[in-house]
Write a structure and sequence with these properties.
Bound molecules: adenosine-5-diphosphoribose, P-hydroxybenzoic acid
Structural class: alpha+beta
Largest sheet: 8 strands, mixed
CATH topology of the largest domain: FAD/NAD(P)-binding domain
Strand content: 25-35%
Strand order of the largest sheet: 6-5-14-15-16-13-17-20
Number of helices: 11
CATH superfamily of the largest domain: FAD/NAD(P)-binding domain
């Protein structure tokens, strides 16, 4: 089989890229290990930066997002009882969209079927070959069929546990990683949100996040030790802990209700360089992971996809190799800025087990600085809405 671009992974990165290339008339095949339902069922966050909204708009896939999504003009940092509002609209002239990333995935999958994209599910044993040649190829198995697929480019959109990153020779690879000493325990429930904007709370008992999906659906998180089991946290215990960590004023507005889903997710910062090796480009979680604190995961995948689509379109339209040659540098520049912001916000709103009185005093000093400095709030706001692509 011969295609122009072979994409591994049908998550948000793989499908956004496939749609963008398909819209340019570029022949694409997407190879996904799981079933559509499995990929759809992945627990995902809910804050969209402008780059993600713009891609969905360019693809004509923004109707449901604009109908059901919530435009957020600010968010709050809570330091005990103090709420510090970051007015992102006033400070940056931009907003963020709160719209479940699972909904983005659904919109992308449904449109792929309607638009006739070649997405193949339950594909096993993908192996990448000849990445340094002009005709890289991959082998895989679709049921009883063994495929040999030759392409101009292979794009690894196969997430943190995928195979594409591992096809880069160790001698050419550099990994940067920080595993955090806590995980996030999250609950999704059909109850009205306690606040119309997100609240990131640093409490003596630990971190809490009050988020939302709609006027009738709420999303909450607390940080827990990494060895926590879901069985340790019956729903009522989680609701009670959220009330304590968000403080009495906010807690008075929390509506409890049965969980639609409860999830545990460890926190990690991870960057794999290079994001290109020969004719292999890496996008999204295949190349980087951020702690969810800054809500950057999907949005970084979107900026990678933006750069990759730009480079590939220019390569096919103008035989221009510049975009391809500079893809990794451009993508990584934005990745590192998002890593820095996600790491710094994680440091600000979590209590690290190894921290002592000095580190706590530094957190307090930073909250005081943010509360009193427009410049400090601007720095947070411009990173939260997403740096320009
Ligand atoms: N072969 C084929 N497909 C694979 C393989 C493989 N060997 N390994 C992984 N995959 C598939 C997974 O099943 C998954 O559907 O690749 C896809 C990767 O999707 P994600 O993990 O969602 O990663 P990405 O598309 O980069 O999304 C990035 O979206 O919702 C956010 O927070 C989420 O940070 C994440 C972001
Ligand atoms: C969410 O609503 O799931 C969410 C929001 C903001 C974050 C992380 C998760 O930083």
């Amino acid at each position: 089989m011969r295609t122009r671009v072979a994409i591994i992974g049908a998550g948000p990165a793989g499908l956004m890229l496939a749609h963008l290339l398909h819209a340019q008339g570029i022949d694409v095949v997407v190879l996904e290990r799981q079933t559509p339902d499995h990929v759809q069922g992945r627990i995902r966050a809910g804050v969209l930066e402008r780059v993600t909204v713009d891609i969905m708009t360019r693809l004509g896939l923004d109707d449901r997002m604009r109908a059901e999504g919530l435009v957020e003009e600010g968010f709050c940092l809570a330091d005990g009882e103090r709420l510090i509002r970051i007015d992102i609209a006033e400070l940056t002239g931009q907003t963020v969209m709160v719209y479940g990333q699972t909904e983005i995935q659904r919109d992308l999958v449904e449109a792929a079927q309607v638009r006739g994209l070649d997405v193949r599910w339950q594909i096993d044993d993908i192996a990448l070959h000849a990445l340094d040649s002009d005709t890289p190829w991959l082998t895989c198995r679709e049921g009883e069929i063994d495929w040999h697929i030759t392409a101009d480019f292979i794009i690894g959109c196969d997430g943190f546990h995928g195979v594409s990153r591992r096809a880069v020779p160790a001698s050419a690879a550099q990994i940067h990683e920080r595993v955090y000493p806590f995980a996030w325990l999250g609950i999704l429930a059909d109850v009205p949100p306690c606040h119309h904007e997100l609240i990131y709370a640093n409490h003596s008992r630990g971190f809490a996040l009050a988020s939302l999906r709609s006027p009738t659906r709420s999303r909450y998180y607390i940080d827990v030790p990494t060895d926590t089991q879901l069985a340790d946290w019956p729903e009522q215990r989680l609701w009670d802990e959220l009330a304590m960590r968000l403080g009495p004023t906010v807690a008075a507005r929390i509506t409890q209700g049965p969980a639609l889903e409860i999830s545990l997710a460890p926190l990690r910062s991870f960057v794999f360089e290079p994001m290109r090796h020969g004719r292999l480009l890496l996008c999204g979680d295949a190349a980087h992971i951020v702690p969810p604190t800054g809500a950057k995961g999907l949005n970084l995948a979107a900026s990678d996809v933006h750069y990759a689509a730009q480079a590939l379109t220019s390569w096919y339209a103008h035989n221009d190799n510049d975009g391809i040659a500079h893809y990794a540098g451009k993508a990584l520049a934005r990745v590192w800025q998002a890593q820095r912001f996600s790491w710094s916000l994680t440091r600000l709103v979590h209590r690290f087990p190894e921290d002592g009185r000095f580190e706590r005093a530094m957190q307090l000093a930073e909250f005081n600085h943010i509360a009193g400095s427009r410049a400090a709030q601007m720095a947070i706001a411009e990173n939260y809405v997403g740096l320009p692509v």
